[in-house]
């Protein structure tokens, strides 16, 4: 009986572990392939693999964090979003380095970055965190998923450092409140703060992987 339970436990973490390794390998290929066409191809392969994994697992909306946060989390998340937005405005007012110098250009860039932040949070939380949770437990998943998130931003020293700290913060919020939408808003606000306050000579247009080296 004990051996059977141990075998079932191993099988329960085997599939999430395989999915993590395979998808992360595809993402690294997308980041480090020398040709743009190859990077786009690997990104598409990663996206299809994630979609198939989600279909195979059939997780609940709640587990993936695709619903709205519970009422008790609303005040905490609302304050975080407001502070992030306020800091972004302050950074621009102080004369940041954001690439769009018009209000319209900034709003357009901010909207696009919000969508990108939402996609990143889906990948980080709905895919990586939920699988790390099955392997390492809830608390261990915070560190494991955040570390994977930061490593994907190598070799940029600025982004790797900020995404490790930010990843721990985002994953802890997800662990507590299980909703990626407000976390994506906070992510976008903090990302824009980095974009407008750090010189592009260090950020390299916020590129990672081979794109950072080829800047």
Task: Please sum up the structure shown.
The chain is mostly helical and 215 residues long. The protein has nine helices and no strands.
Characterization of this structure:
It is a single chain. The chain is mainly alpha-helical and 215 residues long. It has 2 domains: 1-58; 63-213, no CATH class. Helix content is 82%, strand content 0%. It contains 9 helices and no strands. Helix 1 (2-32) runs antiparallel to helix 2 (36-57) and helix 1 packs across helix 5. The N and C termini lie far apart (58 Å). The model is unreliable at 97-108 (pLDDT under 50).
Structural class, judged by helices and strands? Answer: mainly alpha
CA-based gyration radius: 18 Å
C-alpha end-to-end distance: 58 Å
Uncertain runs are 97-108
Number of domains: 2
Oligomerization state of this entry? Answer: single chain
Order of helices and strands: HHHHHHHHH
Overall spatial form: globular
The amount of beta strand, in percent, is under 5%
Total of DSSP H or I helical runs spanning 4+ residues = 9
- Relative helix content: over 70%
Number of DSSP-assigned strands = 0
Q: Provide the residue-averaged pLDDT.
A: 83
How many strands, which pairing sense, and closed or not: the largest β-sheet?
A: none
């Amino acid at each position: 009986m004990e051996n059977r339970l141990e075998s079932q436990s191993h099988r329960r973490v085997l599939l999430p572990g395989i999915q993590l390794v395979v998808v992360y390998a595809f993402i690294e290929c997308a980041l480090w392939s020398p040709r743009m066409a190859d990077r786009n191809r690997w990104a598409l392969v990663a996206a299809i693999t994630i979609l198939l994994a989600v279909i195979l697992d059939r997780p609940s909306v709640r587990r993936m964090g695709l619903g709205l946060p519970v009422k008790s989390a609303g005040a905490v998340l609302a304050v975080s979003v407001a502070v992030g937005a306020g800091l972004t405005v302050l950074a621009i007012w102080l004369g940041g380095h954001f690439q769009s110098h018009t209000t319209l250009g900034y709003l357009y860039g901010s909207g696009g970055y919000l969508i990108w932040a939402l996609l990143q949070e889906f990948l980080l939380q709905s895919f990586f965190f939920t699988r790390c949770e099955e392997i390492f437990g809830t608390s261990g998943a915070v560190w494991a998923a955040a570390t994977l998130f930061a490593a994907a931003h190598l070799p940029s020293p600025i982004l790797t450092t900020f995404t490790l700290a930010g990843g721990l913060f985002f994953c802890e919020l997800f662990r507590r409140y299980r909703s990626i939408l407000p976390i994506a808003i906070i992510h976008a606000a903090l990302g824009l703060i980095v974009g407008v306050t750090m010189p592009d000579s260090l950020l390299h247009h916020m590129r990672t992987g081979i794109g950072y080296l080829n800047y």
